[in-house]
Amino acid sequence: QVQLVESGGGSVQAGGSLRLTCAVSGYTINNKNMAWFRQGPGKEREGVATITSRGSTAYADSVKGRFAISQDIAKNTVYLQMNSLKSEDTAMYYCAADRLAVHMWNFPKSWNYWGQGTQVTVSS
Predict the structure, then answer these.
(1) In the structure, what pLDDT confidence band is assigned to residue 94 with cuts at 50, 70 and 90?
(2) Which of 23, 25, 82, 116 has its CA 20 to 30 A from that of 3?
(3) Counting Cβ atoms within 10 Å, is residue 56 exposed (0-12), middle (13-18) or buried (19+)?
(4) In this structure, which long-range contacts are made by residues 108-113, counting pairs with CB atoms below 8 Å and at least 24 apart in sequence?
C-alpha cells in the first residue's frame, strides 16, 4: 500500500520560510519522478515543483528562485524548502508520486498517488 504523508506546514509571516516533508512508504522514490502541488482557496490544484528520476528539477514560474525541491533516497523522503513566502503561497500542499509519462508534470492527472496535504498559511 502506497502512502505519502506530508508534514511541516503551518502559519508564517510573509518573508518567512518553511520546509515541507513528504514521507513515502510502499513505493521507492529512487529513480522515480516526484512532485509537489498546491491548492489555494477557490483555486485549482497546481504544480509547484518536480524532481525527475535523474534528479533534475522544474518549478512553477511563481515559485522559481524561492522554492527548492529535494529528496533523500535513504529516507525515501521528498522535501520542499520554501523561502521568501508570500500571502499568495497560502494553500494546501500535496505530495505526488508515480507520474504518467504522457502528461505534463504540472497536471494533477499526471500523478497516481497523493498525500492528504499539509496547510501553509502566510500572513502579510
Answers:
(1) very high
(2) 82
(3) exposed
(4) 108/37, 108/45, 108/47, 111/35, 111/37, 113/2, 113/4, 113/27
User: Do 14 and 86 contact (CB within 8 A), yes or no?
Assistant: yes
C-alpha cell at 9: 506546514
What grid cell was written down for 115? Answer: 498525500
The answer to whether 92 touches 119, Cβ cutoff 8 Å, is yes
Sequence letter at residue 92: M
Q: Helix/strand/coil (H, E, C) string of 53-72?
A: CCCCEEECHHHCCCEEEEEE
CA dist., res. 86 & res. 56, Å (int)? 25
3-state secondary structure of 110: helix
Query: Which pLDDT score is estimated for 101?
Result: 73
Cα-Cα-Cα-Cα dihedral sign, residues 51, 52, 57, 60: negative
CA distance 33 to 64: 19
Q: For residues 30 and 73, is the Cβ–Cβ distance under 8 A?
A: yes
